[in-house]
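Researcher: Here's a chain I'd like modeled. Treat it as a single chain, no partners, no ligands.
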Amino acid sequence: MTELKDNGEQIGKEKRGDIDVDIDIDIDGALSSAYGTTDDENGSDTAKAQRPRRLMELLTENSELIENALNELLPSGEATHGIIYDVMRYSTLGGGKRVRPFLTLELCRMLGGDVRAAIPYACAVECVHTYSLIHDDLPAMDNDSERRGKPSAHIAFGEANALLAGDALLTYAFALAAENPFADAKRNVRAVSALANSAGFDGMIGGQVCDLLYEGQKIELDRVFDTERKKTGELIAAACTLGIIAADAKGHISEDVFAAARRYAYSMGLAFQIVDDILDAEEAGGDGADETSVVNIVGIDEAERLASMLTGEAVKAAGELPNGGVLSELALYLRNRKS
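Model: Modeled as a single isolated chain. Structure tokens:
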């Protein structure tokens, strides 16, 4: 991976296949504006009133930071197989909430780590997330023709290219984590392992298998929760875990911190999915479009209660983490979103 100076300036270029990979990210400038604090931040009424605004500013700043990093790190250029670069960039850049990379950056910051060490991990998480969306949209899966306000990858580039681009993003994610220049080899190995486990057969992939298995069935609520914990919660948990690993330069962060972050991720992720079900049902006139949705199983009122309860559990878990206020605000923001 291209080496960076401490201030984010490029000091090298490497050739990867037919691609010149350049990195020129103003990391410190973005971080200083994103993470500036004031003395009264934790206590005054003024600070409390500013918190929602600060959360939105943080989301925007982090999203721009990750967008710039991905733009530099994703392959581009002329090559015989260059269409795969185009599909990877088309699918990854210019859209999405970037919640997962936000969590990676924020967990590192909360624990006093060098946020630069979290950026490659955050990009790796987003590559895995994007690969999952490309594959989810394929005709053999959810058969969705639109993603993030534009044609899905298989509509724009064909099924074969979409399938291969998803594969390429998944494998590239592990290269990004393994070659993180701001973390030592031990942390990079931990990051690769955590990401692989969360994305794999007992994690996100396992959840997708269950989703297909239960398609068209009205199943018990606990099965829905288990499916969504795997399909959605595991990658969110990986995002949090990688942020902690980025901050854990000395290997002293306790398992209690990792456990609290996982509880936060699972509760917030499940609440996020239930809110999605509620919004889909409201758009459809009151009925959940999916037989396995929480709304179809328990109704909108109970789904609203469950989303609020799970958000409360996420807020409680965030309170067990150092400087976890931003995570609490994020959980509440996602609970109350309208889209």
